[in-house]
């Protein structure tokens, strides 16, 4: 099969369209002919050698895909050849074929095409896990979502609104309109405004839940922004991991819960249970258009270098899709 491969770790110039073996499926796995995949920040790190795949997983980049079932293992009864599916992957999405465990697949709703479906899994499962499973958001709570126009951010805004929460986001100014259209109640331009002060203007108690992707650069202000009994879920470190000095007093006095998580390295059972929960409670909202993936742009996979450079420049609002073809 054809796949996007790389010569060495490094810049986008290392990427090329090459040949790789078609994955061999086990009795519980399904072979999917990939029609579209979506970019994630982690792809850029993996390309640079900073985010290796978990042991035993494909070395090919790509954490999600949509496509058609092309073969099934001997113990697969839930899926048939020709079914249109999408899934979260531990790797291998930038390829013509990928193998997926039967419990990880989701059926594409009739209202959605392959490109839209490819934009769902990573953003919505990450946001679902963070807000529903970890933070336990409640109706009427205020949720502060950093990088509101990121793939995960756009999913988080919609899930929070669907749960009846109030949403405040940080994003560059040019991305505010998109966040408002998705339901954000207030947008903060983090370059011009102090988000901790702004959230206290919005709601005197601060954020009940905070979804963070920045880490060190925002940590102290995040602690200030959180309300009593606030919960913060840390999902990324775009602003680094080391803090030189910190007053951690408020963690105690405000009875804060600070959590971190990654999805990729979780066990199959955990990811399958998360997928199943999303299929039950999130997929109906997607199928009826209550929540929807936000697609910034669609690139042909031969233009993968341009697509990754575009994301690296923080230009995208929502997801960047790669159309996989002959
Ligand atoms: N832990 C997990 O399970 C998990 C899973 C998926 C993704 N993630 C993480 O979630 C984050 C978002 O991923 P994504 O694929 O949705 O990203 P994305 O669509 O590329 O969006 C990232 C956005 O973050 C903002 N940003 C970048 N650097 C920044 C900085 N230093 N300070 C403030 N804002 C910055 C930019 O928007 P502005 O122009 O508005 O600044 C950028 O567009 C990444 O950190 C990723 O690693 C974690």
General description of the model:
The chain is 29% helix and 26% strand. It has helices at residues 41-47, 114-118, 121-134, 151-162, 176-181, 195-202, 216-225, 249-253, 268-281, 283-287, 304-312; strands spanning 2-6, 15-19, 29-38, 64-72, 84-88, 97-101, 105-107, 142-145, 166-170, 186-188, 207-212, 226-234, 257-260, 295-300, 319-323. The protein has 326 residues and is of the alpha/beta class. Strands 3, 4, 5, 6, 7, 14 and 15 form a 7-stranded mixed β-sheet that branches. The protein has 11 helices and 15 strands. Residues 40-42, 122-123, 126, 147, 149-152, 171-172, 175, 213-214, 235-236, 238-239, 261-263, 311, 314, 316 line the site of NADP nicotinamide-adenine-dinucleotide phosphate (NAP).
Topology of this protein?
Elements: E1 2-6, E2 15-19, E3 29-38, H1 41-47, E4 64-72, E5 84-88, E6 97-101, E7 105-107, H2 114-118, H3 121-134, E8 142-145, H4 151-162, E9 166-170, H5 176-181, E10 186-188, H6 195-202, E11 207-212, H7 216-225, E12 226-234, H8 249-253, E13 257-260, H9 268-281, H10 283-287, E14 295-300, H11 304-312, E15 319-323
Helix pairs in contact: 3-4, 6-7
């Amino acid at each position: 099969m054809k796949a996007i491969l790389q010569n060495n770790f490094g810049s986008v110039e290392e990427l090329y369209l090459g040949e790789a073996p078609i994955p061999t499926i086990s009795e519980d796995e399904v072979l999917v002919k990939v029609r579209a995949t979506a970019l994630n920040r982690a792809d850029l790190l993996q390309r640079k050698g900073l985010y290796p795949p978990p042991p035993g997983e494909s070395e090919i980049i790509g954490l999600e895909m949509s496509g058609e079932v092309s073969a099934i293992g001997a113990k697969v009864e839930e899926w048939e050849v020709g079914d249109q599916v999408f899934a979260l992957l531990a790797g291998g999405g930038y390829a013509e074929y990928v193998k997926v465990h039967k419990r990880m697949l989701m059926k594409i709703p009739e209202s959605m095409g392959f490109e839209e479906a490819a934009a769902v899994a990573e953003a919505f499962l990450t946001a679902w896990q963070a807000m529903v499973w970890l933070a336990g958001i409640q109706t009427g709570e205020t949720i502060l979502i950093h990088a509101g126009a990121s793939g995960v951010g756009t999913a988080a805004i919609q899930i929070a609104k669907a749960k009846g929460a109030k949403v405040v986001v940080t994003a560059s100014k040019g991305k505010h309109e998109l966040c408002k259209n998705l339901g954000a109640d207030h947008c903060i331009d983090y370059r011009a405004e102090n988000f901790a002060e702004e959230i206290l203007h919005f709601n005197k108690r601060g954020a009940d839940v905070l979804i963070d992707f920045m880490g060190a650069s925002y940590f102290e202000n995040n602690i200030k922004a959180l309300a009593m009994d606030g919960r913060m879920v840390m999902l990324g470190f775009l602003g680094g991991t080391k803090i030189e000095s910190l007053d951690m007093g408020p963690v105690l006095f405000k009875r804060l819960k600070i959590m971190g998580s990654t999805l990729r390295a979780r066990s199959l059972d955990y990811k399958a249970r998360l997928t199943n929960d999303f299929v039950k409670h999130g997929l109906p909202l997607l199928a009826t258009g209550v929540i929807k993936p936000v697609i910034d742009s669609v690139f042909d996979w031969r233009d993968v270098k341009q697509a990754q450079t575009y994301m690296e420049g923080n230009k995208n609002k929502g997801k960047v899709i790669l159309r996989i073809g002959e």
